[in-house]
Design goal:
The complex is a heterodimer of chains A (223) and B (270). Chain A has 223 residues and is an alpha/beta fold. Chain A is built from six helices and ten strands; from the N terminus they run βββαββαβαααβαβββ. Chain A has two domains: 140 residues, Rossmann fold; 68 residues, no CATH class. The chains are: A alpha/beta (223), B alpha+beta (270).
């Protein structure tokens, strides 16, 4: 199995020097579906930031998609991010762009042709059941719909890994289930590696997943 | 409508900057024209015991650009009461020589004193008439105008800087979300800031166009040109090619600086 993420003794902290994650080691294989749980403030979002390079490890080695994030350059980080899809609890959509433009963003960054982009956006809108909302802006949609747009954007460029931070935290049961189904199908059908930070793991998950738990700065796998 | 609103705030800021700059330029031009006008009607008269070469006088001070020997005929004519021509020629030879000096610029009282000193250094020169009393009054008035304009320019610069910083904060707020999101998906800085630069250039073009229309209209108004003609000067209020290019340049530079500052000041959320 190819290791998509490999962390060895990583320490994560912000500028106030308070250690959030302390000398943690773990690895994630290609096509794994990972849940990372922990109480509020335990460091789930901090770990996620480290995984997409927004927070550099203070110590240790963190390799994501073959890129060492300890002391990574901006250009290498951009290269890595072009192969990652990210979903946030607060969606992080560009409000002044239509939903199609939001979805096509990773494709534009990766330099796809216009015809490919148009086809991909159309098929993704169908996949997330938003084809009837074409031309609308994010704020014209419900929270669940905005998160589906964010999911479509995360899937658009066929990333090797999808990182999700509390993707259903603000959603009702119906929308939550849709998001989990989308993540499951991305893992099962497209072999994408999925890492989800969440408070709790939904009971109806059918996919075989691994479960990491963060407690007092330590990360351990729950078996 | 949404797009127009996005453009409007910067266009207004840029337009006020361009308006202030062009107003300053026009006043500066008027002042320069007025100074030239004063210089045209101003000269220093030198009285000498004997003939001095024009070039020799010009070498006495670098501000002298032309020397004209004044003919004594008009003075002699007034004295011509029964004097025969032989005596008249003799009288002409005994009269002092008068020279009118033209200067390169309208001198300050200090420069005028220095010029008088330099001229009197030559033994042949008996007197230098610089009409200093009326010169000093006019010069002080001109100096006051210049200072007022300088203060005005300073105020414009301060207001401009404040406007730019206000706009900078608005832009930073407006564009940081998009730049952050683009950064999350690996967009290089030139791509995530491309919209910003495009907006900056478009706004610069629009504000220059508005400035062109406003000043073209104002320069075609008779009452404005008449105001200048009344004080004896002819000023170009707005040169449609030169001034438009100047304002366009200023506008593009200001908005590009604004965009660069936003890009440099942008920090990824962590």
């Amino acid at each position: 199995m190819v290791k998509v993420i490999n962390a060895e003794n990583i320490t994560l902290s912000y500028s106030n020097n308070e250690t959030i994650i302390n000398r943690a080691s773990f690895s994630v294989d290609s096509s794994d579906f990972i849940f990372v749980t922990g109480a509020s403030g335990s460091g789930k979002s901090t770990l996620l930031k480290a995984l997409y390079g927004a927070l550099k490890p203070k110590e240790g080695s963190l390799i994501v998609g073959g890129v060492e994030l300890f002391g990574v350059s901006r250009s290498k980080l951009n290269f890595l991010r072009r192969h990652i899809g990210i979903v946030f609890q607060d969606y992080k959509l560009v409000k002044e762009w239509t939903i199609e433009k939001n979805i096509m963003l990773p494709l534009l960054i990766n330099g796809y042709d216009k015809s490919v982009i148009d086809n991909q956006v159309e098929s993704l809108l169908k996949h997330v059941r938003l084809q009837h909302q074409v031309g609308k802006y994010p704020l014209e949609l419900s929270g669940g719909e905005q998160q589906r747009v964010a999911m479509a954007r995360a899937l658009a460029h066929n990333p090797i890994i999808i990182l999700a931070d509390e993707p259903t935290g603000n959603l009702d049961e119906y929308s939550s289930q849709l998001i989990w189904n989308l993540l499951e199908s991305a893992n099962e059908q497209l072999n994408m590696t999925i890492v989800v930070m969440t408070h709790h793991i939904p009971e109806y998950m059918k996919v075989n997943y691994r479960h990491f738990h963060i407690d007092k700065g330590n990360i351990h796998e729950v078996t | 409508m949404r797009s127009l609103k996005n453009h409007f705030s910067l266009i207004i800021a840029l337009l006020s900057i361009l308006f202030s700059i062009q107003t300053f330029v026009v006043i500066q031009r008027a002042l320069e024209a007025y100074e030239q006008n004063l210089l045209k009607n101003y000269s220093v008269v030198v009285v000498s015991k004997n003939d001095i070469d024009k070039n020799e006088i010009m070498l006495m001070d670098s501000s002298i650009v032309d020397v004209e020997k004044l003919s004594p005929d008009s003075v002699i004519k007034r004295l011509n009461t029964g004097i025969n021509s032989k005596n008249m020629e003799l009288l002409k030879l005994t009269l002092p020589r008068f020279y009118q000096l033209k200067l390169s610029h309208y001198p300050s009282p200090e420069e005028l004193n220095k010029l008088t000193e330099n001229l009197l250094f030559n033994d042949a020169i008996m007197k230098v008439e610089s009409f200093s009393k009326s010169h000093n009054t006019i010069y002080k008035l001109l100096f006051l105008f210049k200072n007022v304009i300088l203060v005005f320019a300073l105020v414009v610069v301060i207001v401009t800087i404040l406007l730019i910083f206000k706009e900078l904060r608005i832009w930073q707020f407006k564009h940081s979300e998009r730049m952050n999101v683009m950064g999350l998906f690996g967009a290089p800085i030139w791509l995530s800031s491309a919209v910003l630069f495009r907006l900056a250039i478009v706004d610069a073009l629009i504000s220059s166009l508005f400035a062109f229309l406003i000043f073209s209209y104002l320069s075609s108004q008779k009452f404005i040109t008449d105001e200048f003609l009344n004080i004896g000067i002819d000023v170009v209020v707005f040169d449609k090619i030169e001034d438009t290019l100047f304002l366009l340049g200023i506008s593009i530079i200001v908005s590009i600086i604004l965009a660069v500052m936003i890009v440099l000041g942008h920090k990824e959320e962590a």
